[in-house]
Design brief:
By secondary structure, the protein is an alpha+beta fold. It contains 22 helices and 31 strands. Among the domains are: 131 residues, Jelly Rolls; 324 residues, Kinesin (3-Layer(aba) Sandwich), CATH 3.40.850; 120 residues, no CATH class. Bound molecules: adenosine-5'-triphosphate. GO terms for molecular function: ATP binding; microtubule binding; microtubule motor activity.
Length: 971
Amino acid sequence: MNTNYHDDNGDEVDSMLCIPFSRLIKSGFIITKCSDNTVLFVNVGGEAVKEEGNCAISVVADRFFDGGDVLRTDERIIDAGDMPAIYQSARFGNFSYRFSNLSPGEYFVDLQFAEIVNINGPKGMRVFDVFIQEEKVVSALDIYSIVGANKPLQVVDIRVSVGLDGVVVIRFQGVCGSPVVNGICIKQASRVPADQEEHEYVICSNCDTEIEISSCQKQNIRIKSTAKLERKIEELKNLCQLKSEECYQAWMSLTAANEQLEKVRMELDNKYFQNLRLDQAMGKQAAKLKDISSRYEYDKKHWLASIRELERKVETMKQEHSQLSSEAHNCADSIPELNKMIFGVQALVAQCEDLKLKFSEEQAKRKKLYNQMQEAKGNIRVFCRCRPLSKEETSAGYATVVDFSAAKDGDLGILTGGSAKKIFKFDRVYTPKDNQADVFEDASPMVVSVLDGYNVCIFAYGQTGTGKTFTMEGTEQSRGVNYRTLEQLFKVVEERKETFTYNISVSVLEVYNEQIRDLLATAPASKRLEIRQASEGFHHVPGIVEAKVENIKEVWDVLLAGSNARAVGSNNVNEHSSRSHCMLCILVRAKNLINGECTKSKLWLVDLAGSERLAKTEVQGERLKEAQNINRSLSALGDVISALATKSNHIPYRNSKITHLLQDSIGGDSKTLMFVQVSPSEQDLGETLSSLNFASRVRGIELAPAKKQVDANEHQKFRLMVDKLKQELRSKDDALRKLEENLHTAEAKAKDKDQLCRNQQEKLSEVEVQLASKTELSRQLEKQVLRLSRGMKEKDEICSKFQLKVQEPENKLKDREHTASMTLQHKEQSTYSSEKLQVTPNMVSVLKAEKDSPNIRSLSSTTRTINVESELLKGTDSLRELRRKKQIQSKGSENSFNSFLLSAPLVDKRVPSAESNKARQIDPSKAFSRITRSGTKSVTTGQRAFSDNNFNRDQVRGGKESSSRLKMWLR
Ligand SMILES: Nc1ncnc2c1ncn2[C@@H]1O[C@H](COP(=O)(O)OP(=O)(O)OP(=O)(O)O)[C@@H](O)[C@H]1O
């Protein structure tokens, strides 16, 4: 209903606003149409604002427009109390005014205030609400009840009253005991016909004639009927008393049943909580089991993957194993061949060793023969070389005093004047036409001796400008003995590299005024270089630079460095070179790879100072000193050679630096070669003769005078012998070379075979190692697989144990459930039997009338709780069954409604669902039907309100409280 509030001007106002009193007198609010049987309630409340004193308020309901049917309520006094304050507000409570029997039409309600003690009066007030309601007339009550103990319900008094708040209160009293009212039905009164109501006539029941009755008769009739009714009331009272007693009995029996039910309920509560605990435990177990099973599944998957991987690896390894086995078999098959090869190699090695032995022997023989030949030639050999006439000499017209007609035979003729000719005999005589290569060819065998471990000394002797430096050093275009010697040495070293290793180093010295100077030293020596004896037969100069050379390029660099160093400090190179001895020492360290023999030998290549006579030079001062030193050193050399010739006990090596340095290279096993350089010019005749005489003396040392003096036939014979020996040596050399070649080939073959054999063996060993590792790996993998399988078995066992453990509480739960259900059934049967008491219509009506009572609802709820608990018990199935049902539920299968209901309580506790709600909605009616056997809709609705939360402990407690409230009420 819409309620609109208006002020004096007819404007719409908020009812909650404070309306000034003066204005409120006239104001009102329109009520919309009231229909028949409408009751108007005006609810007024709030505060009246006043200055002092009390005021009265009344509500007037006035028919709209026609001004009739003015209805006025009693005045209510609003007491302002003793509040002295001006404009205090007096709060008054809510007034509810009721206007009944309103005629249909539109009304407006007005509030009217009257001042009791008129001082200033209230200033305003607030109106809460005005509403209308159709009046309901209670004409009949149907009460449905359970009295119990086969006692009928006798309702002796039913009183209905409507409170101020509009609540209908129905009171009724049973005769016997306290009936349990299960439902109340309020019906609308049937309307009495207006004509019967209006006229005071009695209609004859036989002839339907209206008989008008007088007021006296009417009075009598009323008295009689009143007496009759009183009698009837008395009878009914008696009956009611009886019924009350019966009801009391029934109530007593019901109380006993209730007590029993309470006990059962308590038991069920206990069972319920036990089940809850078990359920929780089971839930935990299930979660644990689920966790374990998920972990187990994960582990299983992991293991299976590992096993698969391992199996794959094992398979691969097996394949590799088989491959390696086949390779090993192949290798094993090739072993005989390898053995053959090894034998072949061994035979070759033996052959090689034999050849090496033979080679060593041959080499020794060769050396012996060579030495014999050298000895036959003489350990000191003298080659004479004559330079060509220089341009100056030619232009000056000097004649040649040298005769080379017998030079081939080593005879050099010197024309001493006129037809006189002096013959000098040398090992070789080189004419000016012979080039450097010719000269070195004869010297090279002696040079090579240094590689065989002999000390060798080659020196050039002669007058200044006769070509000593030219012979020893040469020029870039025409290399001398020094360069060619080293070239030859490297060549031989290369040839012998298979059998010998050589270490060659070079030192370059200069002896000037009996002082040694290191020409390879980068800085001048801090002290004088002296000659020391390092070991027996080996002298050296400590601190001297020994430049290691490995190729001819390095040799040339070293020689050039020495030559450059020699020029330093001298204005005239040629002059300086003429007055100093230049000495090149080649130190050779050799190792025979065949027999391991090591040798250390040296080769001296000496460019002596000019040998011109002091008398001729007629020099003085420094030059004289130089000349004296040169003469002294050259005569010391001559003395040494003389001592060697006479095989003197004392060889005066230490008389000069040069002989001291050459001590281990002149005499003994050492070989000496002397180049005597002469000038062809007649102006140098004296010096030439002097040099040739010195050389002849040197040569005479070796070739003993007796020997030298042998006749021509003997000499011829000796020469033939030498030739023969040479030929033999050559053939031996060839044979040796062939042998060497064979040896090299055999060695190469042996090496190849050896290498092959080694490779095969390495491969075999590799294959064996691989095979072993693969076998080991395979064994480990198999072990791992076994271990994993064992682990899986153990996990399976643990799982089955867990399942057994879970089954145990499940079985217990089942047993309990069974016991509980049996008990419940028993209880239900007993309850049902009590239900089967006779139910009179009155009882039914009482029960119906009580259907909305909270107490009744509580009892129903209690019953519902019992039912639900019993269903919970039924529902606590084994975990496996539950899981199966869950699965069925998740699949949306609804083929078994009962199984769903069974599973619902457990599921509902975790996941509330529409189905579970549905189940709950359906379930209470079933529960109620067990008790009332009549499933009315209202009862179902009432029960639903409770059953929505019936799994809650609080509600169980609530059920208990309701039950106790019911008991109290019944009492
Ligand atoms: N066999 C030869 N053929 C051509 N020229 C030569 C020969 N021997 C020497 N000569 C020339 O003679 C000159 C002098 O030679 P060289 O300097 O070698 O004499 P030397 O004996 O070393 O003198 P010194 O004692 O002063 O050192 C040089 O120009 C050289 O080229």
